[in-house]
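We now fix the convention by which a protein and its fold are recorded. The integers have meaning only within a learned vocabulary of local backbone shapes. A record is reproduced here so that you can trace the correspondence yourselves:
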Amino acid sequence: MLGRSNASGGGGGSSTPSDLVDYIVEENVDSTTGLSYRKWKNGDAEVWGKISVSVPSWVAWGSSYYNSGYTSYSYPAGLFTDVPTTLQVTSTGAADAWTCTGGLGTKDKTPTLYFIRPVSASAGTYYFNIYAVGKWK
């Protein structure tokens, strides 16, 4: 069992749920979003995964380019009670790009996620790796 114990001592015994300060009460992969999530006894919730994005074209923005078709993405339904803190990083795709966000998102959706590039590129598939943490209760 994954958790943090409140018991003292360094013995090799196993912990029971009553010995743990915090532990996972639910862990699954959401069938709708494909994102993994975990709920902790203390009310924390976390979600993580890879989001595939089809980029049809790039739009000039000053001396940079951003992807057309940018949007926000759903968290597993009903997971968060308030807007979570979201971290996103770019996973390589059709060409190198940086991750940018617009807004804070909601308790149900990520902030608007899009890619920035120094030069235009062909249409292709790119990926966001996301991690969000908030409260489920």
Q: What stands out?
A: The chain is about 0% helix and 50% strand. Residues 3-135 form one domain.
